[in-house]
């Protein structure tokens, strides 16, 4: 058994092998591995005896289940209506300009991946974004530069 297979087996032992346990198992893999490769999804399907199409479908449905290698910090900017009206584009421009990456890309040093996401539930404090599990609200271009500088310093 390779490390991926034993990770999936441990998670399935922990959460169970029914369909409703698929999401926690997938999240557990993402937490450890950062993303779900095609191979990993096939192994999850095998371990849980669930059709692979269902595992792929679940991964595409939830934007927080990464299916591509991602950086150490995953930035997810909310693209839903309130944040769109409150300046998420300016926010994205500031991030893209600072990190020199576009949406869907990862910096060459593998530190940051930039993504968009659906409503994060912080519309009353739009625009909102996540960096890994941390929420940032009412983010202005100036504020985002400060936040990212903090992350850059933390890892240098
Ligand atoms: S619209 Fe962005 S958090 Fe709800």
From TrEMBL:
Keyword annotations: 2Fe-2S, Iron, Iron-sulfur, Metal-binding
Cofactors required: [2Fe-2S] cluster
Binding of [2Fe-2S] cluster, residues: 78, 83, 119, 123
Top-rank taxon: Bacteria
Any one Gene Ontology molecular-function term assigned to this protein's record: metal ion binding
Cofactor binding description: Binds 1 [2Fe-2S] cluster.
Cross-referenced InterPro entries: NADP_DH_HndA-like, NuoE-like, NuoE_dom, NuoE_N, Thioredoxin-like_sf
Sequence similarity: Belongs to the complex I 24 kDa subunit family.
Annotated PANTHER family: BIFURCATING [FEFE] HYDROGENASE GAMMA SUBUNIT (PTHR43342:SF1), NADH-QUINONE OXIDOREDUCTASE, E SUBUNIT (PTHR43342)
Protein name: NADH-quinone oxidoreductase subunit E
Species this chain originates from: Mariniphaga anaerophila
